[in-house]
Amino acid sequence: MTAALDLLTELVRGRTVASGEGVLAALCADLLRDNGFAVSTPGWEEGREQLVARTGSGSTPLTVTGHLDTVPADPEQWSVDPWAAERDGDRVVGRGTSDMKSGVAAALVAAADHAARPHACRGLQVVLTAGEETGCTGALRLQRSSLAPGGPLLVAEPTANRLVPGHKGAHWMRLTAAGRAAHGSAPELGDNAVVRLARAAAALHDHDAWPSHATFGPVTANVGLLRGGVQPNVVPDSAELLLDVRTVPGVDGDDVRAAVAELGGDGVRVDDHVVLPVVDTDLHDPFVGLVREALVAVGENDEPQPPARYFTDASVLARLLSPSEGGVPAPTVVLGPGEPDQCHVVDEWCSASKVEAAVEVYRQLVDRWCSGR
């Protein structure tokens, strides 16, 4: 196997379901440090360390980013061990193969190779985060002072090596209802908070009049969690619902929250949980042109694709990398070897050949960046 596929196997075998990313951050830090990067591993609790690594003399480096965590996997539902990174022809199967340890592996190998070659390096920065799947938890804990801002941002999330110039935003909300407890044999004496939120869940699920955007498509809403009650013979006096709304340009967060509250009905409180802005890079931005050049150089399709439905750490990092605090976000391109339709699914896989192709695309990109183009 190639260096990238070897590294991918190691990354997948590290079970980083909302914890334990620090072990992989240390592994990646060693690889980059051995190739001349200056490395730091900021974290917010033990085992949740992240990675910020820089090489080159430029004060405004190109930043490449990915996340080390994954969503859970139930082995009973999988046909193989989710953490074995088994090969099936061109496919590498395992949790995180597409989302997004394949992108991390390809980016790290390309970055290490670039730094190991003597040249006048304009600057390359690698940022690997923890907790992206829970709402960019790790990225939100990074400080602007720990990064070198001013340059563009490449996100190695799954696009099947196609150029994606942005993605939807996320507006996660917590809906709560307070009721009145009673004995389960006399439900009429209580006020069932679970039933109230169940009605809200159905209304939100069935709603089909969300705003839409010509390029980004419609706003969507997903009821991701509904819980409440203590046992069958007690009328629940409290309940909670977590809602995932994906937003598009031109949609005001206050308006979205108001619509959710109206659909939720009386007695339902709506609070923001996580709010991540849309990422939208102008197709005429010079960085988009640079990525297109890199794709053409290795025989890949360079046509920009529609914005992604998912969010990425770019919602946070593009603003932290702005040349001035509160200024225009860094130009951002999402491009990685993973398969977009394999995110979070059973028997998740990525293409080994696309991982190897991504290494070449990233090599071409950072070489062109350092040439000053």
From TrEMBL:
Family to which the UniProt record says this protein belongs: Belongs to the peptidase M20A family.
Essential cofactor(s): Zn(2+)
Every Peptidase M20 dimerisation domain range: 166-262
InterPro entries according to UniProt: ArgE/DapE_CS, Bact_exopeptidase_dim_dom, Peptidase_M20, Peptidase_M20_dimer, Peptidase_M20A
Domain of life: Bacteria
A Pfam family: Peptidase_M20
Native organism: Streptomyces himalayensis subsp. himalayensis
PROSITE patterns: ARGE_DAPE_CPG2_2
Keyword list, A-Z: Hydrolase, Metal-binding, Zinc
GO molecular function: hydrolase activity; metal ion binding
Transmembrane segments: none
Protein name listed in UniProt: M20/M25/M40 family metallo-hydrolase
Record keyword Zinc present: yes
Statement: the UniProt record of this protein carries the keyword Hydrolase: yes
